[in-house]
Amino acid sequence: MGRRTAGLKRAEYNKRVQAWSLYDWANSAFAVVVLAAVLPTYFVDVAGTSLASPATAAAYWAIIIAISLALVAVLAPLVGTMSDVMRGKKYFLAFFTLVGVAATGSLFLVSTGDWQLAGALFIVGRLGFGLANVFYDSLLPHVAVEEDQDRVSARGYAFGYLGGGILLVIAVALILTLPDEDNLGVRAAFVAVAAWWALFSIPLLRGLPEPPAAAAKLAAGTSVMGTSLRRLRTTFANIRTYRELSKFLFAFLLYDNGIGTVIALAVVYGAELGFGTLELIGALVLVQFVGIPFTLMFGAVTDRESRRRGHILTLLLVNIIAIPALGITAAYTLERDSVGRPDPAFATVGPFVGEGEYDSTVNSFTRTGDWRVIGQDDLPAGARSDYLAAGTVGSRLDIPFNGQRITFNHSEGADHGTWEVLMDGAPLIEDGEPVVIDAYRPTIRFEVPEEFEAAAEGTHTLSLVTTAVPNPESIGSVIAIGQIEVLPPVRTSDLGLILGLLGAVVTASLVAAAIFGRRLEYLADRLDSKRTILLTLAVYTGIAVWGYFLDTVIEFWFLAWAVAIVQGGSQALSRSLYSNLAPASQSGEFFGFFTAVARFGAIIGPLLFAGAVAVFGNSRPAVASLAGLFVLGGILLSRVDVDAGRNTAAYHDLTALSYPRHVEGGLANYGRPESLPEASQGFTERIRALDGAEVTGAGDNDEL
Predict the structure, then answer these.
(1) Are 25 and 157 in contact (CB under 8 A)?
(2) CA distance 163 to 360
(3) What is the largest CA-CA distance in the chain?
(4) Closest CA to 619 of 280, 287, 266
(5) Distance CA 57, CA 523 (A)
(6) Are residues 154 and 196 in the same domain?
(7) Domain count, the chain
(8) Core-most of 438, 448, 487, 536, by most CB within 10 Å?
(9) In a shared domain, residues 476 and 531
(10) Does some domain include residue 674?
(11) How far is 171 from 512, CA to CA, in rounded Å?
(12) 308 with 381, same domain?
């Protein structure tokens, strides 16, 4: 029979799907590079250097993110409704894409200390990104027929993974190859993101006609804004009409925030457990690229036109079962140095302090020179501990410790000097040069971190000595040290072994799919969007519980693989299922609600995480608490009657006055029945009231 194409020729249908998917490829560059990888660090380390401390800069960055999320959440339903009233989804998509592109490119202008400019441009860019996504998502029911929306939505997410990953590689190449002067590489990366986003948005804006909508003929004296606000009020007043859609939104609010928290805080959690940069960055890259095929598989496993559903389901199930089973087994049966099990903590040995945090005033730390203790209450904002300070050349602080890596915080200022760093009495060498700390800075700043590593584990003495050759711009030789921390042992692991075991799981899943794929066809036939999302939530629940016990490098890699399996699929199928439950005639308005719920709810997961940390003192219970979001979200989702919700949306589209046919075939082109079940008394009238007498639309012969 073949896949329906909404009355279009196959080539034209595929062209529109391709153009729509490419927009995810385009704007994911912003999500990966600006939101996640580059700008947060650039803001703290460069743009925020005029603030009192890195911690203050990080706090400001969190506030800026919250402001941008709130603005998107508040504006999304309004602008989405306006796009329906005006029949202008593509116009709004183009406008907000342009806003996002311009703001992202303008980040090139952000230099040292420009935190206000960076924050303002980020908020504008995030508005462009978030609001453009409202209209991109709302085009899904107009691009793909209903039974094809899972596949097309997953295709979009997969394109986004690939596009964002490629641009991340380009950004890293720019940062590493362009001169460090004025942070040219980072600033050029922002321009690359803007160009990428703009270039690959063109196919969607040119290749897709404006879809029909429940547009409004404005009466004299009325405005688009006023009409949109009235329509929003009417929708809220009749929200019980959309009972199933409302239940889905509540479920999505919970589990999507669990997913978002996993994405946002995975690196923070890994760093707290002591995993190295290789593991943290490698896990991000793994999720980015391994997520591509798994996202496509989740889109295909619900596709009843696919002849490989049983094979795909087998492959997914083997990965879902084998990854935790093999990862946990290997973590506690293979050699410690192969899987990254932690060594025992460094203990204090005489005057050599062991693993842990210490004030710089500890008696075993030897001071030479005019040192004095300055209490935190006597220091400017930004200091988070007492400081030990000296102001003469030759002042020296010796810090004996038992371990290998040690960090400390210090201050910078106009009267600060240059310090030589010694390890066991000899100059510490990094990259072939003696390490020297230049603490000069035009404005005062506290909690500036430094980390140093000895050649091997054991007892060492780190020494800081003010030199007679300060920065020429400095007006003094001050040295001021805050809190000191001896870090845990460095974890060692065999990356080749870990990747080999992951490859073995892939091989086993392919073999199992070839052998058992046909036998699982019956089970695949029972999977629809809702059941498949519930499967991903069960996996996420397991991920949260596993994360609580996680304590080896191999488990961190395997856990990242588990996240890659379900991350894209859960989000893609949620988008397509919501598209089934929302009226296509008002997709702008309803995807505005979808975006608002996602953005407003983005604070739930982090707040739950922070609350658990505050109560229990570490992140392990906080990670486990995320399982509650997945379980509650899954319970609510299981109670959504998808068929009833789909019929509600179909009734709305059928009764919206003058709502045009997609092409010949009417509602059937959305996969919705031409003959709908008989509605309860007054049901059709309630739906019609949502639109009002002013509703009209394009003619039946107008473009899609």
Answers:
(1) no
(2) 47
(3) 90
(4) 266
(5) 52
(6) yes
(7) 2
(8) 536
(9) no
(10) no
(11) 39
(12) no
The 10s digit of each residue's pLDDT in 541-551 is: 999 999 999 99
Range of the domain at 518: 10-335+493-643
> Does 651 reside within a domain?
no
Distance CA 449, CA 439 (A): 11
Instruction: Among 593, 622, 643, identify where a domain stops.
Output: 643
Give residue 311's pLDDT: 94
Structure confidence by residue, pLDDT tens digits, 361-381: 898 999 999 999 999 999 988
| 136 and 214 inside one domain | yes
CA dist 565 and 546 (Å) reads 15
Three-state DSSP at 113 gives coil
What CATH number is given to the structural domain containing 376? 2.60.120.260
Q: How far apart are the first and last CA of the chain?
A: 24
Q: How far apart are CA 437 and CA 454, in angstroms?
A: 17
Q: Of the candidates 460, 486, 512, which is a domain's last residue?
A: 486
Question: What confidence tens digit (pLDDT) does each residue in 662-702 have?
Answer: 333 334 444 444 444 544 444 444 444 444 433 333 333 33
CA distances to 188, 191, 437 from 47, in Å = 15, 17, 21
Q: Token pair for residue 200? A: 């690959």
* pLDDT cut 90: percent of the chain above it: 57
Residue 234 burial (10 A CB sphere; 0-12, 13-18, 19+): middle
Task: Assess whether 138 and 214 both reside in one domain.
Answer: yes
User: Residues 434, 428: contact at Cβ < 8 Å?
Assistant: yes
Instruction: Please give the angle made by the CA atoms of 274, 277 and 282, to the nearest 5 degrees.
Output: 115
For 36-77, the DSSP string reads IISHHHHHHHTGGGGSS-HHHHHHHHHHHHHHHHHHHHHHHH
- Which contiguous run of DSSP H or E holds residue 504? helix 495-516
Do 113 and 179 fall into the same domain?
A: yes
DSSP 3-state of 458: strand
281 and 403 fall within a common domain: no
The answer to the question of residue 667 being in a domain is no
58 and 200 share one domain: yes
517 found inside a domain: yes
Residue 214 binned pLDDT confidence (cut-offs 50, 70, 90): low
Q: How many CA atoms lie within 13 A of 175 on its CB side?
A: 15
Residue 657: phi and psi, rounded to 5, are -60, 130
Token pair of 24 as six digits: 């995810």
**Which pTM value belongs to this model?**
0.86
In this structure, the dihedral spanned by the alpha carbons of residues 69, 74, 78 and 79, taken in order and rounded to 10 degrees, is -20
What distance in Å separates the CA atoms of residue 97 and residue 139, rounded to the nearest whole number?
15
What is the spatial distance between Cα 405 and Cα 412, in angstroms, rounded to a whole number?
Answer: 22
pLDDT mean across residues, the chain: 86
Task: Check which CATH number belongs to the domain holding 44 and give it.
Answer: 1.20.1250.20
DSSP string, 291-359: HHHHHHHHHHHT-TT-S-HHHHHHHHHHHHHHHHHHHHHHHHHS-HHHHTPPPPPPPPBTTBB-SEEE-
pLDDT of residue 373: 95
Bridge partners of residue 357, in order along the sequence = 485
Burial of 307 (0-12, 13-18, 19+ CB in 10 A): exposed
